[in-house]
Amino acid sequence: MRVTVLVLATLFLINGTLHAGAPVAPPGATFFDNFSSGSLDTSKWIASNWGAPGGGTFVPSYLDFSSGMLRIKVTQTYNSSGGITSVGGELQSKNALGFGAYEWVIRASSTSSTPTGSGVAVSGQISSGFVFVNKSQTEIDSPEIEGQNPGTLWWTTWAGLTTKQSTSSQAAFAPEAGFHSYKCVWTSTSIKFYVDGVLVSTHTGVVPQTPALAMINHWGTNSTGWGGLATPNITRYMFVRSFSFIPLSQLSTNPPPPPPGNPAPTVTSIAPGSGPLSGGTAVTITGTGFLSGARVSLGGTAATSVVVSSSSKITATTAAHAAGAVNVVVTNTDGQSGTLPSAYTYAAGTGGSIAYVQGKSVTQTSAASVTVTYPSVQTAGNLNLVAVMWGETTSTVSAVTDSKGNVYTLAVGPTQGTGLTSAIYYARNIAGGSNTVTVTFNRTAAYPNVNALEYSGLDAASPLDVGAGAVGNGTTGNSGSKTTTSANELVVGVGNPSTVFTGPGTGFTNRMINAFGGIAEDKIVNSTGSYNATATLTSGAWVMQMAAFRGSGQGSGGNPAPTVSSIVPSSGPPSGGTAVTITGTGFQSGATVSLGGTVATNVIVTSSTTITATTPAHAAGAVNVAVKNTDAQTGTLNNGYTYTSSGGGGTIAFMQSNSGPATIQAANTTVAVTYTAAQTAGDTNIVVIGWGDTTSTISSVTDSNLNTYAPAVGPTSGTGLRQSIYYATNIAGGSTTVTVTFNQAAAYPDVRILEYKGLDPTAPLDQALGAGGTGAAANSGSVSTTAASELIFGAGTSGTRFSAAGTGFTSRLINLYGNIAEDKTVNATGSYNASATDSSAVWVMQVATFKAAP
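The chain above was modelled as a monomer; its predicted structure follows.
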């Protein structure tokens, strides 16, 4: 018995408006709607006007029929308390239906406002066709599609709130990119689920028996689990072309007809129009009538990595072929073909053998490390590119490693934008086999997402040529340009958005857009020149980077030796502990730093031109500063740093910091934050507490080592904001967790903890002051110090986000909430204030000065 039902529609334009040649009811259907009348058929459906799952709402106004079909909108916005308000739409049939075949023809949630427009799925919603009645006495999800994992189709059956069976299948297409048929056939003993007429799952363990309503809905989520975290201010749309129900009694006597015929595809262009004999060229084919699953061949040889992105566009990678002009053929799944004669030329000596091999992305809401496993076995000698993106500017990448022991080098970055950071790493001449890449941060990073890609045909000795990175705000990300030095190169673009990237730049091929909207794209160039990477996004902040890699045999035979040009500050105490910044060229990830032959600690290679580190203890005098790369090459700045026997700020030194909570919390009574490393006895802890109301107060500040905390300044109130600074002197050593307790659930609380050495162990606090205000320049007001050597500590809580420390200050952290902690050391009494750059909003800024140990 054949039970496949496939409803298709022919789309055409009338006066620029998209209409559907209305699908017709399949034989035996007793309930059918093609939503083509221009309004809701209230004899069949009820529009929901009540609460949605997850705390949102359904409203009838989010249902639209102007496109000749049903469109359901979802919006997510910040409410007045800082939480998320989700609004969506839902239909339910007026009458209950029973055993039979239910079919929905749906385009799952995307950012496209039209049925055939380009759009992507974003985190924070569910789109579904399902059957439901009376608190899941019967519920059949057929299927539910998440915004954060749109390629996974979830099939769930319920017979009451606690009895369910759930399976999933992976779509062979992008559900958010086009229409597909989703169907369940419900009998008394089983439920079978179909996608485009193909059986994908059968449930026999939980089969509900109560007749139920046919449902269609699209609703918002804000969860680290189901549906994903909200994506505020990005409207998304679900389209429904038709729904049909055939009672079980009609299925045997009314088998569905074969699908109506589709027109043959046509091919109008291919770009680029030529490439090397070895293949591996990313091409874009345009035409009409392309169907999902279509195949591409050039000169009779099948192309790889074929993606039907729309009915008029296909991207693919050419296969190897003999020289000459060849036909380009697109063959649809119904066997019909379209041909563009002699459209592509295989030419000797154009483009080497550079080729994209495979890729995978992983996203997490917060994590100290992220692992990505390549989906296929890797080929020895290829190059791995790892794009690391995260949603704040405090965390840094400590290491990029993999299970094969390949060595990763920083290519570009880290590049910091408004609440965003990105870095590109690569490993050359890799070992073959199954491989998992691990990216480790120095602390729990917010919204880390990693795109890992493999390429062939790149130089095994010295592939990296040039790189660039830039930040901005708007609808087009642009890395800025750099000039390449080799004829045949791979240009890779990586974009990290605050919203979501929607497509690659001109001439680039999109390799992936991950669940957080981060893009990886590439193109192959065959001449030296000035190149940049661009990509389009829904308007918002962005970081865009570009890295160009030389084709095989074009490298210089190795990486250049590093050079060291400066170290700031250039002097400090013999006891060490001074935070320094080293600049130069050619720094590689994993490089070591030494001063006078003694290895520095806390070394972080922030880019190929900048390293931060902490000086070791050393005898007084001028010493060489040396940077040694992982390939053993070294650069030295002779007599670059002086250990002074006295003065120079005493021995005050920043040791470590952390911030919490790890995710944004709308309200909390207590917040606990743990120092990332064991603390040193005798040091001083400084704790900054910020929160988003002016009624809550701090009840206590304690820690796991029973250190005693005293207020330094505050609470200082601004418009809807408060902040206080506490400190503990002469602390006990060891692992330490600081806990802040409020008198009530404080709004959006955050806690910043910092450790310093070299401060007076008995009475370090000298002066303190705080102020509230608005605008881009936050300022605590000035205080007059009484000791020559002091730590000037500043901290700010913002209604939006701080972007930089004040002049002369070092930013120690800007956390997930956008709040800052900064410091500087001074060597003379005077008038001092703390300042920082804010995103032109309300702020509270405080300063506290602490005397050095006598």
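The two ends are 92 Å apart (CA to CA).
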